[in-house]
Amino acid sequence: MARTGGSGRSNASSILTVSGYVGAQLLADIGSLRIISLGGLAVDAGTLVYPFTFTLRDMVHKVVGVRGRTVVLAAAGLNLAMAAYFQLVARLPVAPEVGPQADFAAVLAPVWRIVLASILAEVISELTDTEIYRLWVERFTRRRQWARVLVSNSVSVPLDSLIFVVAAFGGTMPGTVLGEIVLANIAIKAVATLLSMPWIYLVPESGDEAEAGQLAAG
Fold this sequence. Notes:
Layout: H1 2-31, E1 35-38, E2 41-44, H2 53-64, H3 68-91, H4 102-108, H5 112-139, H6 145-169, H7 175-196, H8 207-217
Antiparallel strand pairs: 1-2
Helix pairs in contact: 1-2, 1-3, 2-3, 2-5, 3-4, 3-5, 5-6, 6-7
C-alpha cells in the first residue's frame, strides 16, 4: 500500500510538472505578441515567463527521464497548432452585427517568421538542455541538483537566444542591435535561472533516473 501511495504521488508530480512546462511555453508565446519596457529595455512580454521553461524542462527530465524529449516536441507542436488556430480565426468572417473585431487579428494573428523562429529555438535549445542534463547526471554527479540546472541552462540559454534573434530578425536590423538583443535576453534568462534553480528540489526523481543512479553508485 505504501508503495502504491508513493507511485501515486510520483505520477501526480509528473503530471503537474509536464503541465506546468507546456502551459508556460504556451503563455510565453502568447505574451511575446506584446512588447513591453523592462528595465529600460524593449522586450516581448513572453520574457516574463519563457526563461523559467528551461528549469521547468529540467524538472520534467527529473520526473520522467529522457522521455522529456517527447514533452519538448509536444510543446513545440502545440505552439505551432495554437499559432495556426489564431491565424485561422483571424481570417474567418466576423458576425456583422457584432462589428469588425479588428483587435483580435491585430494582436493574436501571428507573424510567422517570429513564430517559426521561436519554435526552432525552443526545440534545438531545450533538446540540447536535455542532453547536457543527462550527461551531467550520468557521468559527473547526481548530487548538488542545482548544478544540473545551472550547467544545462548555461549552454541552452545562450543557444536559444542566439538562434531566435538571428532567425527572427536577421537581415532586418544592424548586427550591433541584434547583438544587444541577444545579450539582453541572455541576461534576463540568467537571472531567471538563478531564481528558479531551487525548484528542482520540488519534484521526485523518476524511477528510471533513480535506478540509473543506484547502478552507478554500485
